[in-house]
Amino acid sequence: MGFFKPFARKKEKKVLTREQKLKFYGFEFLKLTMLALFLSPANSYLTNFMLFHPEKDTVADAEQVKALKQKYKLTWTDEYFHSKDGTKLHAWHITKPGAQKTFLVSHGNGGNLAYRLPIVEALADSGGSIFIYEYQGYGGSDGEPTPEGIVKDGLGAYDFLVNDKKVAAQDVVLYGESLGCAVATAIAKERPVSGVILQSGFSTIAEAARDKLPWFKLFPDQAFPQRFLDNVTAYKTKHPPLLLIHGLNDWILPCKYSQEIFDSAVEPKQIVLLPNCSHNDVYGGTKLIATKAIGTFVKNLISQTVANKKATDVILSTAAITDHNLHATKPQ
What we know:
By secondary structure, this protein is of the alpha/beta class.
């Protein structure tokens, strides 16, 4: 008997009722739907967590600021203004004697202004004054950053610079760093400017997100509420002069993005790809290449502004002469 075991009784298969099946599959579908929503680009908590890494308390190195002031004879003031949604924002307005252009700088997604002194130095070295502001939630600015909010911040900064600080629109050069490239592009679509510089940017937020998070490839462009963060579409039609700067070794936002923007854009456009340069060291070892490119770009913008002014003066003068002649020959 020890060598034999009684035949095991077959377990009866449980048959689910229609109501039980509906309940089971409905619950599973609900779980999958919740997971998809959590992982989707429509989840603002997830996307904002990925996009924004602000710092509030870090301050700029006082000795470095002092050295920059002395080297370029800069006047450096803190300014406060309001975003288009009413949020109070902080900025530095850095003026340089004899500057004919002012750079309006939209920074990247991390830190605050304390980390942007290399950009300030490069732009001062290129001959311009600088207005660099902090998005909502960064540094001395109130609020919390959102994709929609940072665009409103950029437009608010432009309007403050032109309307309150009395910088002429034709003397404003937009400068975008990384995420800030999309803000600079959004400003250029809505306001007149002299030129646009995009440093280390992405093509579209949807493409960059899919490259970073493979499951985002499952979602169409329409699923990205942030799809207005786009550096490609605006330059396919008439636009201000465009300069693209990108490190060839950038692994955070590869230089293919700037190349895509350049290839899609109509003239006037220029691209400078920096050898042995990554995302955060554009003004490191390749500083001279980048600064020279910006300096040349600004000189060309100044020449164009002068030419446009002369052309406008000729038109106004011709119109005045014509008007005078018409009045002179009019029968009394």
